[in-house]
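LysR family transcriptional regulator
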Amino acid sequence: MKRAEIPSLDDLRAFETIARTGSVRAAAEELALTHGAVSRRAANLAAALRLELLEPEGRGLRLTADGAHLAGATTQALDLISSALRDIRQRSAPAPILLSCERSLAMRWLIPRLSGFQDRFPEIEVHLSTGGGAVDFGRSRVALAIRRLDFPLHPDWQVQRLMPERVGPVHLPGGAVGMRDGDYVALGSHTRPEAWPNWLRDHPQAPKPRSIRMLDHHFLMIEAALGGLGVALGPLVLVREDVVRKRLSAPWGFDPDGTDYGLIAPVTGPEPAGVLALRDWLMLQAEADGSIPAEI
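Tokens:
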């Protein structure tokens, strides 16, 4: 048969859907057409081919031998077309951007804001991974990383500073875990074991804690402070919302600790438009959230 003699694809699709689903009603629901429209398309196909494709069986329909042969071939053809279209769309769609971020920063700063980026750029797909320290861009698929810049930076990296790190003691407002009388538990993180000793050294007038309790990560330390277990030495970027909303009190304010958060990317030529958009958005978020709350 010449290709010019192939019947209407709409009629073939209606017939194939009837054959696959087993009824005109089910085919109509799948194709979002009326029962009558699907029946007419199947009838048009049979008339064009001058063949009986469907025959009554009780209250339903069954395929004739010719109908079964055509239905099988049509299903295969439509599956091939669908597969080809899926491959084309996947190749033409921008590759997802893999963004790596330190775990506590991801949980308490990035993830609550990331939906804002997706709302603004729905065509850009961002995948998030967590990690700390140096990034092996050669072995990983990471396109952009957010890190506290407290480790040696590779000369082949492109580094853009986001905001300075500021830290300060935070605890429940007006609770018994406050620092006024010195009878408090200091909450620290194993990722920065010297943070409390350094802060107490720089603030000799501050009451000394009765003990320092270490947790594995900053987000656990902050949750412990919110649960009334002690006084956390919290980075401003991680506790800002809690202080602004008065869930935590920061009576000593926040001091720079000499480090910065930054964006790190490999120097591999021009960045894709999606990575540039994500970079600019992150810079705007950092600029908006980097200030110290007016009331602490």
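Strands lie at 54-57, 60-63, 97-101, 126-130, 144-148, 157-170, 185-189, 211-215, 231-235, 255-266.
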